[in-house]
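pinging the channel bc i need a second pair of eyes. not urgent but kinda urgent?? the chain im working w is below, pasted from the shared doc
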Amino acid sequence: HKTHQDTRKEICDYMQSHLEHDHQGMRLKDWIHWQLHSPHPNQYIQRMRQPSEWGGAMELAIATKVYNVDIVVINGAR
């Protein structure tokens, strides 16, 4: 069975190998730069490989591609 480490690795590997691919209307590397103000997508991905880093909206969006699933986020803090 798959562990959370496996999931993190698969998402980061996908990001690393798809930097030039279109994702939500822009290349993934441009999305990383725009969303996270990170001029170096590879540095961001290396940081996300660390177990102490929290994923966010971008990683959830990538997970939908990696696993071919829909992910619904429910925010109960209203």
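so Residues 4-17 form the longest helix (14 residues). and The first strand starts at residue 22 and ends at 23. — does that match what u expected or am i reading it wrong
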